[in-house]
């Protein structure tokens, strides 16, 4: 699959027209057709812009991977960095805190669901 094919699919999925995308990202309005006609690739800066806009990796846009899984968020990156930089006790405490938060959220969900059936 070419970059243009990936872009077409992503634009269709998000219901975005090239005109709007090109204006938003400051990419030439004819660039999309140029890449297709000349069988060329967007430059690195443009690939990064497109990657960030659609939340996919540059590898996905280039067809090097079929996974369009979202890129890691800033919050996830921060948590991962903190986890990697701490000692074993710190890692244990981070995991414990996250598990407690998850458990609390599940309890609240169950309570909210149960209250739907009462009264």
What does this structure look like?
The chain has 119 residues and is mainly α. It has helices at residues 3-14, 18-25, 31-38, 44-54, 58-62, 74-85, 88-117. It is elongated and about 55 Å long. Helix content is 72%, strand content 0%. The protein starts with a helix and ends with a helix. It contains 7 helices and no strands.
Annotate the secondary structure layout.
Layout: H1 3-14, H2 18-25, H3 31-38, H4 44-54, H5 58-62, H6 74-85, H7 88-117
Provide a brief overview of the structure.
This protein is mostly helical. The protein contains 7 helices and no strands.
Q: How many strands appear in the DSSP assignment?
A: 0
Provide the β-strand percentage band.
under 5%
Oligomer: single chain
Overall pLDDT, averaged?
Answer: 86
Number of helices: 7
Largest sheet: none
What is the molecular shape? elongated
- Low-pLDDT stretches: none
Specify the structural class: mainly alpha
Cα Rg: 21 Å
Share in helix: over 70%
Order of helices and strands: HHHHHHH
Intertermini distance: 56 Å
């Amino acid at each position: 699959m070419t970059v243009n094919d990936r872009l077409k699919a992503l634009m269709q999925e998000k219901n975005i027209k090239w005109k709007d995308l090109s204006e938003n990202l400051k990419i030439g309005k004819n660039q999309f057709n140029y890449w297709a006609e000349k069988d060329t690739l967007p430059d690195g800066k443009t690939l990064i812009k497109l990657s960030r806009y659609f939340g996919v990796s540059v590898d996905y846009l280039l067809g090097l991977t079929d996974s369009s899984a979202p890129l890691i968020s800033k919050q996830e990156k921060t948590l991962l960095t903190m986890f990697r930089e701490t000692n074993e006790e710190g890692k244990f405490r981070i995991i414990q805190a996250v598990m407690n938060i998850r458990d609390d959220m599940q309890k609240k969900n169950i309570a909210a669901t149960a209250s739907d059936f009462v009264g």
